[in-house]
Specification:
This protein has 3 domains: 76 residues, DNA polymerase, domain 1; 196 residues, Rossmann fold (3-Layer(aba) Sandwich), CATH 3.40.50.450; 54 residues, Winged helix-like DNA-binding domain superfamily/Winged helix DNA-binding domain (Arc Repressor Mutant, subunit A, Orthogonal Bundle), CATH 1.10.10.10. It has 18 helices and 12 strands. α8 runs parallel beside α9, α11 crosses α12 and α16 packs across α18.
């Protein structure tokens, strides 16, 4: 068994976290030696218990599971990067607890060192979605990679903003890549993998369990030079990401919101604690530019004078399904079930049309699965 196979096997042991695996690697020099070590040597390693050793030995005898995982990666075009590899993301390798294994659908490039995470509430307001999209467009146009979690709300808007700007974006999952969550973002995930990467530390068929998402959040922070929180309720997962960013010595930014909005509680709390209040992408770039590599920041006066126009739809061609959807939409929100009834489409036809129209910035999704034409549509 080679080092890659050994790390994959150890990564699938439920009780072994990345810290325990990293300690084992350090103690035995090579991953392969871990599986050959006797119990007494393993027990000398901090954090390694009898239970963990039993699970390691049990996993060692389950070669079929490992073979299936490797075959699935090969069949689905999923790459594997380990913390020992030279191409492992530099930002992520420098945190305290980097994932030992990363499954990657797409490509992580050297330029993705210049990354900013944009995160926030799943139950985002129209203001939050618009702001996340705007910031992501402007950052992507400046050459910054947008990192987020592919969740509903702010995460979705952030990825779509980067794609609309023809920029790069990375989505970090709280599940295995073959158990994509939320399922309605399947089309978006495909676009992300073609213009960046979908990544996860979890084995391919791991379901989206609640306990996985805090672990996912540390990767979002770890991949980035800074974290922007757009909207966040009092106990939002986005606040966990912000806390992790501070632990990782990353910059934390917050967008102010309405005083009476529950999704402003978290961002306003961050600002009170010292997070950088931002109103445009230049505020972010100015703060992290000393850390950026091979980056020429645009002059502030030019950026400030540049009119943001995320809804320009001139010259775009629509297929028949997109055209049917666009014609029935207006500035008044229309619920997805009403769109189905008015267009006589099924959900399999409608979902791709909605995603494409959003990527073209011709329509916007509001909370509650309502849709409107974009401002200049």
């Amino acid at each position: 068994m080679n080092d890659l196979e050994t790390l994959l096997l150890l990564n699938m042991v439920p009780s072994l976290g990345c810290i325990s695996i990293l300690r084992l690697i350090q103690a035995f020099d090579s991953p392969r030696k871990i599986l050959d070590a006797d119990r007494q040597k393993l027990l000398r390693i901090e954090g390694i218990t009898v239970r963990k050793i039993d699970e390691i030995y049990k996993a060692k005898g389950n070669a079929d599971k490992l073979d299936r995982e490797i075959k699935l990666c090969r069949d689905k075009g999923i790459k594997i990067s380990t913390v020992l590899d030279k191409d492992y993301p530099e930002n992520l390798k420098n945190i305290y607890d980097p994932p030992v294994v990363l499954y990657i659908k797409g490509d992580i490039l050297d330029c993705d060192y210049n990354s900013i995470a944009v995160v926030g509430s799943r139950r985002a307001s129209f203001y939050g979605i618009s702001t996340a999209s705007r910031l992501s467009v402007e950052l992507a146009q400046s050459g910054i990679t947008i990192v987020s979690g592919l969740a509903r709300g702010i995460d979705t808007a952030s990825h779509k903003g980067a794609l609309a700007a023809k920029g790069r974006t990375i989505a970090v999952l709280g599940s295995g890549i073959l158990k994509l969550y939320p399922p309605e973002n399947k089309e978006l995930a495909g676009a992300v993998s073609e213009n960046g990467a979908i990544v996860s530390e979890f084995s391919l068929e791991t379901p989206p369990l609640a306990r996985n998402f805090p672990r996912r959040n540390r990767i979002i922070s770890g991949l980035s030079l800074g974290v922007v929180v757009v909207e966040a309720a009092r106990n939002s997962g986005a606040l966990i990401t912000a806390d992790l960013a501070l632990e990782h010595n990353r910059e934390v930014f917050a967008v102010p919101g309405k005083m009476d909005s529950t999704t402003s509680i978290g961002t306003h709390s961050l600002i009170k604690q010292g997070a950088k209040l931002i109103s445009c992408s230049e505020d972010i770039i100015d703060e992290v530019k000393i850390k950026l590599k091979g980056f020429s920041a645009p002059k502030r006066q030019e950026c400030a004078a540049k009119e943001y126009n995320n809804d320009n739809v001139g010259g775009l061609r629509l297929d028949s399904n997109e055209d049917s959807v666009y014609k029935i939409l207006s500035r008044e929100p229309l619920y997805i079930d009403d769109i189905i009834n008015l267009t006589n489409m099924n959900i399999a036809q409608l979902s791709p049309a909605l995603v494409k129209l959003q990527l073209k910035n011709m329509i916007k999704e509001l909370p509650g699965k309502n849709f409107v034409r974009a401002q200049n549509g």
